[in-house]
Q: What sequence folds into this?
DNA sequence: CATTTTCTGATTTACGTACCTCAAAAACTC
DNA sequence: GAGTTTTTGAGGTACGTAAATCAGAAAATG
């Protein structure tokens, strides 16, 4: 049977109160006694029953998620996952609030962070936009003892505790690898459409993509990146324009959101003239485009995983536990039309 | 504040005992009273505190995992995950025992299942081998009220409650798609190496693979499948032999385990004569081969996910809960050298 | 209407831990 | 050795639920 605190007390020849003092790091235990207890703990292989402990503590965590008010499917998906987590978290003594901010707007984000800090939540997760104001706001949050996690897009060099998202460099490299190999040795141009170079995830994807393109597929010429602010209408426009202007585009990498527009533009083209397309994020639109053959491969980051990881890390930080890197690594999923889940 | 059973009792104007009877579906509550309580529950939005409930119940689940005594990395990985789960499960009031059986041996598996049934565990998970004896053994398990889940390889048509594994048909299709596109329009032969056509997962992969090959890549001729019983030495031999005999092999699909042997054989070949290789399962060997360029793409089923899913489902079955299909679907992961996690 | 059966209430114990108080013992200090 | 401080013990309450007992009320049965 699983040992309990009572067993420890008996085995160490001390009282329950002393075991409790050792376990919860309370003062008033002599060094030798503490060691006796610790020995008993490892001897019996005692592990604290977390469920019972939480029940006894009655602790509740309060977290705030700061999300860009984008209407693209990915961000909607993330918000849904936050909602789902919020629902479950009611069960797990966790309170989660969601705050929306204008997208791609560093000052607005910094302001939001500062105003949230006034409520003194236990932790904050946010989608980073680069900017000195944001760095400063994060520093203030940490100053106030609030756990901080970046979500989807990171803010390296800041004092955030953790980044819950994929390795976007690797994602870009993977995209290049797929696009290059799918292009099958033909020559031609490659178009790239992004949301904004202001967000780190997009920039890193581009860097990784260009690196592999240069290394492994020198016969494919990559056009200058187009930015469409993850706006479907704008994306449709710029992609259409590019495809008209350069008939020898044989590949397209859509590394941001707003794929509704990209797919729309692709549909206008004669099937045999369509480029090989690699895009990001599995949504209703992209999933359909994948089965239809408009998109050839899809890189995905699982929103649910990211949100749950962020919450786990925030809880861990609040409780002073270390992050288990292996557990919190978010994988880059690749979908072809045959393995859509 | 989160409502408790006490709040429900007060709000419904009944006693705690009655609330308990309703919640735990115990007899002795009039229909109208039951409804009053249920209304109070939904009115207050009560959710049972699972932690407290488990604490109070003190219930322990006993599960048995029946695994083939294979020494390939994938099965070792599965066993490691079972061990890890076993460790954690001590915390979660779950007892897991692992039983090994000879691989690819239906009568032995059936015998093992029967002998395990004598202990009357709450649930059994096993890697299926096809055979009438196994079907019959599963029927007996269900007869005895034991929850049954197949792991990695399924046994459709049997009375198992659930299959914790990937859609192997889709995996084969995905492999064909990747292999065909990576081959880049060249003509040539494709070799396929499997473990055994006796296990359903291998057979289904092959079917999916052949289907897409026929549909989409008619210029690639698929050689008859080679079976190596997931034995590295044997695999090395047959792959070497095939590559020697057919110099125009431009693609290889390794759909079983024993990739150590396959990689060994590939390494013997001049780099520029190497075929495009798609294999299954991310292990130490295959991971290295992927970075080295010996393998071009890897399909993977996450052993940890599968084991945890199996345990979740078993617990659910024991508690009479329905399986949440979306949550229990195991994805097919694709790894290229750039997105190894 | 009496009797049996079916409900319901009140109360208690337990699960494993946290946290509190009060008293007693042990270890120091001068 | 008296006084002070530190360490330890004993005991209790609480968390939210499960499960049991027993008595009493209500309903159904004859």
A:
């Amino acid at each position: 049977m699983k040992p309990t605190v009572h067993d420890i007390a008996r085995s160490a020849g001390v009282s329950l109160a002393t075991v409790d003092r050792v376990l919860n790091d309370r003062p008033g235990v002599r060094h030798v006694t503490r060691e006796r207890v610790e020995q008993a703990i490892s001897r019996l292989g005692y592990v604290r029953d977390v469920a019972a402990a939480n029940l006894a503590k009655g602790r509740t965590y309060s977290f705030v998620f700061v999300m860009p008010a984008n209407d693209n499917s990915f961000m909607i998906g993330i918000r849904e996952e936050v909602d789902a987590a919020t629902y479950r978290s009611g069960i797990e003594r966790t309170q989660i609030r969601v705050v929306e901010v204008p997208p791609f707007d560093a000052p607005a984000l910094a302001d939001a962070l500062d105003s949230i800090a006034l409520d003194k939540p236990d932790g904050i997760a946010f989608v980073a936009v680069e900017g000195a104001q944001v760095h400063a706001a994060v520093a203030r949050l940490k100053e106030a003892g609030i756990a901080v996690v970046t979500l989807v897009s990171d803010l390296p060099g800041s004092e955030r505790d953790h980044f819950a998202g994929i390795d976007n460099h690797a994602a870009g490299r993977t995209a290049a690898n797929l696009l290059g190999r799918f292009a099958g040795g033909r020559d031609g141009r490659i178009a790239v459409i992004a949301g904004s170079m202001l967000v780190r995830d997009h920039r890193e994807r581009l860097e990784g993509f260009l690196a592999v393109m240069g290394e492994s597929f020198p016969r494919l010429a990559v056009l200058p990146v187009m930015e469409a602010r993850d706006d479907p209408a704008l994306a449709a426009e710029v992609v259409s324009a590019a495809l008209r202007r350069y008939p020898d585009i044989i590949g397209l990498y859509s590394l941001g959101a707003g794929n509704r527009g990209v797919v729309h533009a692709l549909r206008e083209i004669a099937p045999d003239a369509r480029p090989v397309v690699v895009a990001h994020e599995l949504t209703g639109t992209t999933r359909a485009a994948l089965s239809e053959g408009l998109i050839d491969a899809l890189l995905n980051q699982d929103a649910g995983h990211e949100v749950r990881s962020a919450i786990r890390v925030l809880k861990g930080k609040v409780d002073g536990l270390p992050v288990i890197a292996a557990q919190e690594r978010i994988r880059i999923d690749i979908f072809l039309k045959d393995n859509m889940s």
About this structure: Residues 14-18, 21, 27-30, 33, 52, 54-58 of chain B lie near DNA strand C (CB under 10 Å from a C1'). Residues 73-91 of chain B form the longest helix (19 residues). The longest strand of chain B covers residues 61-68. Residues 5-56 of chain B form a domain with the 434 Repressor (Amino-terminal Domain) fold (CATH 1.10.260.40).
